[in-house]
Write a structure and sequence with these properties.
The structure is a single chain. This protein is an all-alpha fold and 257 residues long. The protein has one domain. It contains nine helices and no strands. Helix 2 runs antiparallel to helix 3. The radius of gyration is 26 Å and the shape is elongated. The termini are far apart. The N terminus is likely disordered. The protein binds zinc ion. The site of zinc ion has 6 residues, from helix 3, helix 4 and helix 6.
Length: 257
């Protein structure tokens, strides 16, 4: 963070602008918003996945009108299986991605160790291309290259576009996917824990539409687009998914009986 600010200031002064007093806050806030925003967005998509999967599954089974216990069992199985599947899938993909990034960082570390002159020029050129004066770019590169750890951070950021201290936490991401899917899947299941028949179907659909609308509004706050459009899209998709599986359930149910 201190290097980032220092770099920001040299860039600003190289362009003839005085560093603003608020630049430290701006850098920090932007960083913070990106990180938490990404996690929150992933969680909302997880809830959406759980909702769509389970409302479809529950209505598909309900369409065949079996005993209420069977619908409840299907909903619980769908929730548990889906949450484990999402968590395990995220764990594997984030682990693999983090291993890939770690290998790239290791390559960069060896390059800095073996060819510091080439790496120094590379870094200076990157800043020059961004409009920093040649001598300032050279001074910044020299300062960054003085400490191997700082040099590695700068190279990882400028060349790979990543922060070496933030290459992903597989367990945290997996847990967040697991929980968010389970929350979304639990909502259309809830009525079936106490009720059965048409009342349970209607309540399940009403709760699903309510959650879908909420997800739409939250997603609109991330994207800055129209709330109404986002809400309508989310609710529309949920209704279509539920209606189609309900219809399939009815057809298959009639065939089986
Ligand atoms: Zn490099």
């Amino acid at each position: 963070m201190s290097e980032e600010v220092a770099l920001d200031r040299s860039v600003a002064s190289a362009r003839g602008k005085p560093p603003t007093s608020g630049s430290e806050d701006t850098v920090h806030k932007e960083h913070h918003r990106n990180v938490t925003g990404g996690l929150a967005r992933a969680a909302v998509f997880g809830v959406s996945d759980g909702l769509l999967t389970n409302v479809s599954l529950i209505l598909g089974v309900a369409g065949a009108s079996p005993a209420p216990g069977l619908i409840r069992l299907a909903g619980i199985a769908g929730m548990v299986a889906g949450a484990f599947s999402m968590g395990a899938g995220e764990f594997i993909s984030v682990s693999a991605q983090s291993e890939l990034l770690q290998r790239e960082i290791e390559v960069e570390r060896l390059e800095i160790e073996r060819h510091p002159e080439i790496e120094h020029r590379e870094l200076a050129q990157i800043y020059e291309l961004r409009g920093v004066r040649k001598d300032v770019a050279d001074t910044v590169a020299t300062a960054l290259m003085a400490d191997p750890a700082v040099a590695l951070q700068a190279h990882a950021r400028e060349e790979l576009g990543i922060d070496p201290s933030d290459v992903g936490a597989p367990l945290g991401v997996a847990l967040s996917s697991f929980i968010s899917f389970a929350v979304g899947a639990a909502v259309p299941l809830f009525p079936w824990l106490f009720l059965s028949g048409t009342l349970a179907v209607v309540l399940s659909v009403v709760l699903a539409i309510g959650l879908a609308a909420t997800i739409g509004v939250v997603l609109a706050s991330f994207t800055g687009r129209s709330r109404f459009r986002s809400m309508t899209r989310q609710v529309g998709v949920a209704i279509v998914a539920a209606a189609v599986t309900y219809g399939v359930g009815r057809l298959v149910g009639v065939g089986v009986q």
